[in-house]
């Protein structure tokens, strides 16, 4: 199995890709451990702050020792320089808010999953032509599950994951899976700023378990 297939399978098997960023290194690591305890084996860390690269480097170090099954992805990649930086520190997969041709050309030949955000058929066609196989529908709350239903038959060889606006409720998750997605990206609805500020890792673990149970019941 290729690296791209391995990461794709891991995300699809758990049906959710949790994503978060926290400026504090310790909080970042504790959240990662909580997600791992809940059963998560693929996580997206978003590159949205000055400490993101250092924190991600530490995540890789801790993962290698304590959580060898965990796949660590980096999100909010907007240019080639960022992709190169996180490639050097060992990111397993890369996610963008939009399609970046240079990033695709850098990562895909290295057998690394690149999932760009797309919100139009034109963007999806462009990404597919560049070798992308896993599309992030973004922003999910603006597009809605109806958009996925309308386009899925046009792109039979692609996997889709909405990010943005996916709620932790059965109704919200089920609407997307019925529309044809392979997984859902979930950020602040699952890993809220309040929970992170309170360092409430037990609730993060429990809420993640609940979402995993909902998804497994729907499959």
UniProtKB/TrEMBL annotation:
Matching Pfam families: Aldolase
Domain of life (superkingdom): Bacteria
Keywords per UniProt: Carbohydrate metabolism, Lyase
InterPro entries: Aldlse_KDPG_KHG (IPR000887), Aldolase_TIM (IPR013785)
Pathway stated in the Swiss-Prot or TrEMBL entry: Carbohydrate acid metabolism
SUPFAM superfamilies associated with the record: Aldolase
Subunit structure: Homotrimer.
Family in the record: Belongs to the KHG/KDPG aldolase family.
Protein name: Bifunctional 4-hydroxy-2-oxoglutarate aldolase/2-dehydro-3-deoxy-phosphogluconate aldolase
Organism for this UniProt entry: Chryseobacterium terrae
UniProt lineage: Bacteria, Pseudomonadati, Bacteroidota, Flavobacteriia, Flavobacteriales
